[in-house]
Design goal:
The chain is α/β, with parallel strands linked by helices. It is built from seven helices and eight strands; from the N terminus they run βαβαβαββαββααβα.
Length: 221
């Protein structure tokens, strides 16, 4: 039996500096059936040229609308039975996709599965006040069945931070099972130009995401 197709979506805005590493980490996955979609969110740097180096990558482009909207465009064009996401400055470890697909195939009651990430800092970059090393709710840690997005929708474009937390809140509220692998499969890079690094909006979006999660839980209780 052939392996189910997994769609990996990389949203990118002016991310030429690290994008090749992200693409090549996806291409190095041990899982045998992957399509890679890179969504250029209105970049003005060399991002399009980097994408064009990889003929096998599906290249989508939109006017700048933020990472949630870029992920959603990728979801709309994805062909896979499973979807996962990698930020343009991060890296998947080689067995990430294989481990998550294996979990979902062994647990048919789960709609998605999370893995941990390790945070690493570019030279000269200090830890942001909000930053934690442990992972689990970053969008790039999630691998989900396509049916989950069909049921709860994609990422809320109003969120430029904490969009993964908000989305997972909707998944939980819908009663969809969420699995967790106690393994690190993503290397998350902090380089000082990250959308969330040092931004005052980070805390307010986190609070809003948590409030929505609580409200959704109350409605289902």
């Amino acid at each position: 039996m052939s392996a189910a197709l997994v769609s990996v979506v990389i949203p990118v805005h002016n991310g030429a500096r690290f994008l090749a590493e992200a693409i090549e980490a996806v291409q190095a996955q041990t899982y045998p059936s992957i399509e890679l979609l890179v969504v250029d969110d209105g970049s003005t740097d060399e991002t399009p040229a980097v994408i064009d180096r990889y003929a096998e990558v599906r290249h989508l482009r939109q006017e700048n609308a933020g990472p949630s909207a870029a992920r959603n465009l990728g979801i709309d064009h994805a062909l896979g039975a499973y979807l996962t996401f990698c930020d343009a400055d991060d890296r998947f470890r080689p067995t990430k996709v294989a481990a998550q697909v294996a979990y979902l195939e062994a647990h048919p009651g789960a709609g998605c599965v999370l893995v941990g990430h390790d945070t690493f800092y570019e030279p000269g970059i200090e830890r942001a006040a909000w930053e934690r090393d442990e992972g689990g709710t970053q969008p790039q840690s999630v691998l989900a069945r396509r049916a989950v997005f069909d049921q709860v929708g994609g990422f809320d474009p109003a969120f430029r931070f904490a969009e993964g937390i908000e989305w997972l809140g909707r998944v939980r509220a819908a009663g969809i099972g969420i699995g967790v692998l106690d393994e690190v499969h993503v290397d998350r890079r902090i380089h000082g130009s990250n959308l969330s690094y040092g931004r005052e909006g980070m805390q307010s979006h986190l609070l809003l995401a948590m409030r929505r999660r609580i409200d959704a839980a109350r409605k289902t209780s």
